[in-house]
Please model this.
Amino acid sequence: MDIAEIGAKIGIYFIPFLFALCFHEFAHGWVARLRGDNTAEQMGRLSMNPLVHMDMIGTFILPLVSIVLATPIFFGWAKPVPVNSRNLKNPRVDMFWIALAGPLSNILLAIIAAFLIGFLAKFYAAGIYFKPVFEILKAFLMTNLFLAFFNMIPLHPLDGGKVLARFLPAQLNYKLEQNEQITSMILMGLVLTGALRILAIPVFWSAQNLLTLALAGFGIS
Model:
């Protein structure tokens, strides 16, 4: 892979991935503020600046290495947005919505990407920039859907674990939180073994249906 190809892949895959990660963390902090906790804002995390959310390994090194080496696994993460549950009026319910905000923000971005693809297909399909822009939007769509489905896996420290906590006995959830290092290792094992490729099923199904709806909305069958 030459430098030009690496640069193109960074533009197509890494930049959309970085934006999706930042928007995900911003959504957590924004909803936390709505529910009464402004910790993220005070710490400068209520921002789309990737530098304030970056985990050097998860946000930059691992994804970029995956692109350069063309590995089958493209994966990464950002630093979790801090939330002080003592500032929340109803911590059990509020944490549910704060956690859910991240995956929902990625679904929103996926819907916007599908809409833009439909718009371009309707009005600019013959344009010289249609294909590269289409590739970026498709990568953005798939990235956001993957982040949404991955983060909804019902294990701590993922958002899905915090969403599930709303429906579990407090004592059971406390034990799960205390053992999140174990579940983190399980998740990493799933990533490294490629077991998370099963997420391709809901991701591709959702992408296909979103694109079908978007194209139909612009009268394209």
Q: What stands out?
A: The mean pLDDT is 90. The chain has one domain: 3-217. Residues 16 and 140 are 5 Å apart (CA to CA). Residues 3-217 form one domain.
